[in-house]
Write a structure and sequence with these properties.
- With 107 residues, the chain is an alpha+beta fold.
- The protein is built from four helices and four strands, in the order E-H-E-E-H-E-H-H.
- The chain is 36% helix and 19% strand.
- The chain has a four-stranded antiparallel beta sheet, covered by helices on one side.
- The longest helix has 13 residues.
């Protein structure tokens, strides 16, 4: 799978044409281009077609600049554990100290 940022695809007709052109390349299983984000996702077989060839077809001879999208890790939005890790380690040590079964088991 390959994701590429294709700049300049503004109309639905351009997106549809680009999708069809990439899908027609031998070795490409599927191609979807999001018109809002201008990100193309291409599912292809590496043995049959190279990433370079897909980039060439998407750029339509250099008309549309093609780049690798920058993936930024999203900030956590949910709740996180408010207890510091050092407290949890201390609790584990205390639990181990009070575990009397370990004294009676022979290994």
């Amino acid at each position: 799978m390959l994701q590429l940022q294709v700049e300049g695809l503004h109309t639905p007709a351009q997106v549809a044409t680009s999708q069809q052109q990439v899908a027609a390349v031998p070795g490409v299983a599927a191609c979807v281009i999001n018109a809002n984000t201008q990100v193309a996702t291409v599912l292809f077989h590496e043995d049959d077609v190279s990433e370079r060839e897909i980039e060439r077809v998407l750029s339509v001879g250099g008309t549309f600049p093609v780049n690798r999208p920058v993936m930024v890790a999203a900030a956590p939005t949910g709740r996180e554990c408010p207890v510091p890790a050092s407290y949890l380690e201390t609790l584990d040590q205390i639990r181990f100290a009070f575990n009397l079964r370990r004294l009676f088991i022979n290994i």
